[in-house]
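step=encode ok
step=design start
structure_in=
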């Protein structure tokens, strides 16, 4: 039986793009030539669901449908670490600026932080109900915002066990992005709207309609003046963000 492979998650630097796909492969492409530089077969059983490049472009961290995080050395393509704590699909992961620490969220309702050098979990936080789809990490590296299946947006302080704040939503949010100054949060999901929130007030400041199906990914531009969103309607939309 032939199964068509398609990218599920992408990470990029100035020179390369690394994509993880539903067939379990990691592929690396040259940004300028469009050439496939290398690939890793069977990076994850069931598909690669999250991927991040280190800031020094020496390694890639990937998450999979089986719930594992794996660290790959780019030069050799060897797996140098395999972190097994999640019990369900990894939906999102981030690397901290020093490349030593990572944070991941999963359908198992858990938000986990990791020391990649020591190859161990540092902290664990859990939602009461429903898996976590996405997260945003503030520049202070202790504030994290998550959202997921239970239609709740949750503010966490990684130094505290319990949530700092919870906001009820009218949709399941699939994706979110913080502005570089941590003042605005863009979210989108099953409601098909791109919403911009005031982070401190916890209120929607504006919203845009355009997608005809659920939105899967969005991101602020580096200057915070635009937001790019991608939906299951195969549309890529660019939104002006006025503050």
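sequence_out=
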């Amino acid at each position: 039986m032939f199964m068509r492979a398609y990218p599920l998650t992408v990470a990029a630097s100035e020179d390369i793009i690394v994509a993880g796909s539903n067939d379990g492969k990691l592929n690396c492409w040259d940004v300028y030539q469009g050439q496939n530089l290398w690939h890793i077969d069977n990076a994850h059983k069931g598909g690669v669901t999250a991927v991040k490049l280190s800031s020094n472009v020496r390694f890639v961290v990937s998450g999979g449908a089986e719930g594992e995080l794996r660290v790959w050395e780019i030069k050799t393509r060897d797996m140098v670490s395999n972190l097994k704590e999640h019990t369900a699909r990894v939906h999102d992961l981030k690397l901290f600026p020093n490349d030593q620490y990572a944070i991941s969220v999963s359908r198992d309702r858990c938000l986990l932080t990791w020391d990649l050098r020591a190859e161990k979990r540092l902290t664990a936080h859990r939602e009461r109900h429903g898996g976590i789809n996405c997260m945003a990490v503030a520049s202070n590296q202790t504030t994290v915002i998550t959202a997921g299946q239970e239609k709740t947006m949750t503010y966490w302080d990684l130094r505290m066990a319990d949530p700092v704040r919870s906001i009820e939503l009218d949709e399941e949010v699939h994706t979110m992005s913080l502005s570089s100054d941590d003042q605005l949060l863009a979210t989108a999901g099953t409601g098909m709207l791109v919403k911009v929130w005031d982070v401190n007030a916890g209120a929607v400041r504006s919203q845009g309609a355009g997608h005809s199906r659920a939105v899967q990914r969005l991101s602020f531009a580096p200057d915070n003046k635009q937001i790019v969103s991608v939906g299951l309607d195969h549309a890529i939309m660019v939104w002006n963000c006025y503050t």
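step=design ok
step=annotate ok -> Residues 1-126 form a domain with the Methylamine Dehydrogenase; Chain H fold (CATH 2.130.10.10).
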